[in-house]
Amino acid sequence: MTATPILGIETSCDETAAAVVGRDRSGAPVILANVVLSQVAEHAAFGGVVPEIAARAHVEALDGIVRAAMADAGLSFGDLAAVAATTGPGLVGGLIVGAMTGKAIAAARGLPFIAVNHLEGHALTPRLTDRLDYPYLLLLVSGGHTQILLVRGLGAYERWGTTIDDALGEAFDKTAKLLQLPQPGGPNVERRAAAGDATRFALPRPLRGEARLDFSFSGLKTALRQAAEAAAPLSDGDVADLCASFQAAAADSLADRTRRALERFRTEFPDLADPVLAVAGGVAANRAIRAALEAEAAKAGVRLVAPPAALCTDNAAMIAYAGLERFEAGLVDGLEAPVRSRWPL
Ligand code: KG4
Ligand code: ZN
Question: What is the pLDDT of residues 322-335, one digit of tens each?
Answer without folding.
Answer: 999 999 999 999 99
